[in-house]
Amino acid sequence: MATEIVARICESCGRIIQVPAELTEFSCVYCGAKQHSLDFTVTTLPADEADRAYVQEHLLDCIRDFPDYFKQFTRKKYEASYGVHRDAIRETYEAMDRYVCAQPARRDELLEAFVNSFLEQWEVLQSSKRNAKRRRKEFSDKLTLAWFTIPAIRGLGLSIGEDFTELLRKRFNERYPGNSFEIGSYEEIRSGFRKQGLLGLFGK
Length: 204
Description:
5 strands, mainly alpha, single chain, about 200 residues, two-stranded antiparallel sheet
């Protein structure tokens, strides 16, 4: 079940802060003042900020919720497995699309921020494993990213789809040059499963 995020006004600095509804005590991220839920004035989170909060919470569900999903990459299983993956991530990336489209002047800045957040969450996820297990997990998660997530985001037909996935590929490859990949589409992958085509998705 997704965590409910609520917006409250800090009694110390007056800024709006977003917190999980179940928390009763925490500190304001802006002024550091210790807070108690009973001291808060509850406010309605603007629709666009609700979208941003939702994306941040679910951004890496495409990997986290699909461990070893690359094993579904077979001629018989790929079409159905791709559809499951695409439908599972739809709400997150539609929310991202709404949020970015609502602020066209900040499009590049917002996409960069979401990509950075994706990679930061990726690093946290990978760091839960060590040495050989981490290398195996990084590789298997990269296969899921390249074979399912990237094609699924592109396949949703969103205005951010091409720009977000290309920027993600670029920043990922800069950060992990020894584990790079290239962009592929569902149609390109589905058409073949030829060895050369599969290897073409990876830079190294």
